[in-house]
Amino acid sequence: MTLGEPDLEALARGCAIFGGGGGGDPTLGYVMAREAIRRGGPVPVVDLDELPDDGLVLPVAMVGAPTVIEEKIPNGSEGGRIQAVYERHFGRPVVAFAVAELGGIEGMLPVAWAAHAGLPLADCDLMGRAFPEIHMCTPNLHGLPIGPVVVTDERGNVATFTSIDAAWAERLVRPTCAAMGSCASLAIYPMTAAQARAAAVRGSVTRAIRVGRLLEAGAGDPVAVLEAEVGAVRLIEGKVADVERWTTQGFARGNAVIEGFGHDAGRLLRLEFQNENLVALLDGEPVASVPDVITVLDHHGAGAVVSERLRYGQRVTVIAFPCHPAWRTAPGLRLVGPRAWGYDLDYTPVERIHAARA
Amino acid sequence: MLGLFAALWCRPLPRSGPGEGGGSAARFIGVAGEMTCAVARGSGRGPGRPVGSEWAMATVAELLTVPRLAGAVEPLIPVALDRRVESVAVLEDLHALGTSPPDSLVIVAETASREAVGYRLDVLLRQASARDVAALALVREPLPRLHRTAAELAQRGNLALLRITPGIGLADTVIAIQQELTGGVGRLLDRARACLALIDEAERLRLGPPALVERVAEALGAEVRLGPPPAGRGWLSAPVLVDGEPGPWISTPGDGTDADTVRRLLLHRLASAAERLESARQRAADVPVQTRAELLTELLIREPHASRDLVHRARQLGIPIDGWHAVVRLELENLAELRPGDEMGAFNLAQLAIRVAMESARGTGGTWNRAGTGSTILLVRSWQAEAGSELQAEVARAAELVIGRVRARIPRLSIRCGVGGIHVGSTGLRTSALEARAAIAAALTAGRRNVAVRFDSAGLRRVLLQWYALDDARDSVARLLEPLDRLGERRSREAIRTLRAYLDAHLSLSRAAEMLGLHRNTVAYRIQRIFELLEVDPDDPEQCLMLQLACRAREL
């Protein structure tokens, strides 16, 4: 398919749903992608099968605190700078950009950079959702190297890291990101199309657009739409009663309390987040946790509310839906399960918790 | 792996009655999630609960007052403080809550408490509520604020959430709570020990008996009363002796067991402390009163011309010496009879009468000071502004009240009481004292006891008649007025009439002139002449009083 200006809104809406509270507010990415498409034309979204096996695919993203990204905006040249570094490094051209994480601004910026470069966007991502750390990608589970990792900022600074593993890359990139002002652009897991077919989450971009369109169309209860499309379950409908938020080590951390109303009256949901929503506890009982996706929907508009936009008094519906199956494997849970975030909880798939509670 | 104290919990056995080995308690202890039972019992609410027995229990609020924990345990939110606690458990591993029994107080050990923050506290509270735990106590520093979800979960689960100050021994805490839950002599001894420390502290701080009793009641965890011994059975009481006489009683309910011995010992210790504190309070309160009393006594004894410095000191001491005064004189007649052969006892009785008299007089309002020595009490009512003679009736009523109160306290005490008139200044004070004395003389003649006799015109006439009937009195009057009698009948009568008006007007020339319908200068001239003839010192109240009595007696 070709991604033109009319598709951007659906993609932004879908990215926000899959972002699980993270990935940053898609509005900024939407504006940047729209401008890029207006200048460079629509972006072809290609299936990985359409790309040559040895074609270089470049997954790109923003790294840093979403709260900072809103004020420290990329200037649009970052993608081209990263592309040039890789083409020099590998000695061959990049055939497509890819979305590193499907969430908020992270799903939109690759569209802008692809439009700038005149390259297609591969229909995949590396998470099937958004995670706060760069090594939390499915290629990590397939043993693919994360590097070289190229980090750049809007000033033109470029840093390249060749680390011994993905965790080290995260460790090295995070302080650089902090030095660049807690927000930077980067590319990770440069890989061939053949590698991507096995290691990436395929069809993410088109799925996000489809979900976004369904919600856009206002086809009844958005939760019912998401239940049908992604297997979502409703955790609570209520009002944001309390938000604690602090930015530390390049992350936006905190928790929010949602006080139920309607048939959820008398219930309290505690939502823990670190950029993304990580754990939801209903009246002290865990009802969803990473790696499953926990998303806060605006009660009236059905759009997703990213964690940094949660405000006291908002009327919201909190949903959760299953993550990509790769994350439910033992290596996947070791990497992104609740204990990987320091939560003293065992992972239980959200649909199983929901079934038990029903 | 669970730690040694992963789950230690103790439940007291049912309290047994006297004669059944009361006070002893068995408990069963669970370690690391496995239960080792010394004596296995069902839970307080389960089917295994013995019929007809009563578990020893305490509310969460009561546990907060356990003396050894005082100040070290506080509620994080005021919820479920009225919940009954049956057992105490220590939790070292947050996952081991599943072994805590219902209605228990679960103390989360310090390391685990550090982990019990954020969502973990929520999970812990939910699990505790699901197990019907009565209270969770976290060992931690004060929290800046309790998260909304934790507060809500505690409230919904009717679960008390407490904080224990780090550093307090966990074992001591558990033992203290367990003793409280066990009840019986162990608990009482623990609390009595705290009470004794409190009494020592109170004596050092010189607290008043009511404050002391209030604190002891709190530390004892039982009602303690200060006042008359309560009617009804089951109360243990000890008297507080004040000045050697029984004052209020200190009482607490007993239970008819051996524990009452501990209660009695504590009551007597408390009563003796209260006695010392009350005596100290009275001594402290008496110091200025005593000083003023000594000064007034000396002022009334000393010759007028030698008392100028005393008047000055009286002013310095705040005695309104320049104002108007009325003196109530009380003579305690039979102290020795009431305490035969016991001089100390008689002295104490006099002191008690003085204290009660003074307190009663002050209770009627106005400024009162006292004077007197031994068995004679002079109560001086003073006014800054001019006081009319109508106030003398008020003073007499106060005197009646004083007599009633003193005799209520010392029932067989016989009192003679005279009430002087109202006069101005230090001379007026002496005059009133003399009038009070004269009134007592009249009371003595008339055989009147335990009533206040006023030195006013009605009373005086009776007094004078009785007095003037005596030959000695008639001779004294004749000798005193002889210089005037020598002036001839008409001039003598005129001089005596002028003199009486002057004396009745409290030595005021203007008022005497008004009473006689003469010019002030005329009166002044006559008075000067009269005193030259009589050779009487007009500044000597004793001579003036005698002169006044003589003038009045002559007119009878």
SSE topology sketch:
The complex is a heterodimer of chains A (358) and B (556).
Chain A: E1 2-3, H1 5-18, H2 26-40, E2 43-46, E3 56-64, H3 66-69, H4 78-90, E4 94-99, H5 104-117, E5 121-122, E6 124-125, H6 138-141, E7 149-152, E8 158-161, H7 166-179, E9 183-187, E10 191-192, H8 193-199, E11 201-202, H9 204-216, H10 222-230, E12 233-248, E13 251-260, E14 268-274, E15 276-282, E16 285-289, E17 293-298, E18 304-305, E19 315-321, H11 330-336, H12 350-357
Parallel strand pairs in A: 2-5, 3-4, 4-5
Antiparallel strand pairs in A: 1-2, 3-9, 3-10, 6-11, 7-8, 7-9, 12-13, 12-19, 13-14, 14-15, 15-16, 17-18, 17-19
Chain B: E1 7-10, E2 14-15, E3 28-31, E4 34-37, E5 54-55, E6 58-59, H1 60-64, E7 73-75, E8 84-85, E9 87-91, E10 104-108, H2 110-115, H3 118-130, E11 135-139, H4 148-156, E12 160-164, H5 170-182, H6 184-205, H7 209-220, E13 225-227, E14 235-242, E15 245-253, H8 259-301, H9 308-316, E16 324-332, H10 335-338, H11 343-363, E17 367-371, E18 376-383, H12 391-409, E19 415-419, E20 423-424, H13 425-446, E21 452-454, H14 457-468, H15 471-485, H16 489-504, H17 509-516, H18 520-534, H19 541-554
Parallel strand pairs in B: 9-10, 10-11, 11-12, 19-21
Antiparallel strand pairs in B: 1-9, 2-5, 3-4, 6-8, 7-12, 13-15, 14-15, 16-18, 16-19, 16-20, 17-18
Helix pairs in contact in B: 3-4, 5-6, 6-7, 6-8, 8-9, 11-12, 13-14, 13-19, 15-19, 16-17, 16-18, 16-19, 17-18
